[in-house]
Amino acid sequence: MAAGALDAWLTPTVMKRGRPAIALSVLCRPAEALALTTLIFELTPTLGVRRRYTERTALEREWLTVAVAGQPIQVKLGVLAGRGRWPQRVAELLPQVPFNWVEFNVGQMGVFVIDRADLVAHADAIRAAGRR
Fold this sequence. Notes:
27% helix
């Protein structure tokens, strides 16, 4: 990450002839691709690196601070132009479902928090909202 990667992750996989392996994925801007490729060659035994170029569309973000167990936590909300905040939009689609939205200021991680019993009880409504 210090070399310019936006994110990196390891994925267990199986290679040909059933050999176990780990796939290293690195997300970076094009300007850092060569330096990060060189670093991968220097730090791993790999003989090759595959690159894919992608585009990203992101929501505008709005930060606010909420208290979780008495501790202040920064929460990031996605704002969809003309439709309001993403968690609020879900709340509008599913007003009967008791959930909390928490997106942490760590990468782009966010989660809907819902009790398992509520998830089971409202599964049909959640599926229907996903098709809207």
